[in-house]
Write a structure and sequence with these properties.
Order of helices and strands: HHEHE
Strand order of the largest sheet: 1-2
Radius of gyration: 13 Å
Strand content: 5-15%
């Protein structure tokens, strides 16, 4: 594979994770401020890369 020439790691900052988890205050805030958010049903699904959009 070409493109990124370094090891990638998962983000661990809760504030960045919560805005993508359905039902969190951070996700609701993101919807209110941005009008759309990329949501995951749970953290396991997020780590596997399966998501849904909501606006």
């Amino acid at each position: 594979m070409s493109g990124i020439d370094r090891e990638l790691t998962l983000e661990t900052r809760t504030s960045l994770i919560d805005k993508h988890l359905s039902g969190t205050r951070k996700a609701q805030s993101e919807i209110e401020s941005e009008g759309i958010v990329h949501l995951f049903n749970n953290r396991e699904t997020m780590e596997n890369g399966k998501s849904r959009h909501r606006n």
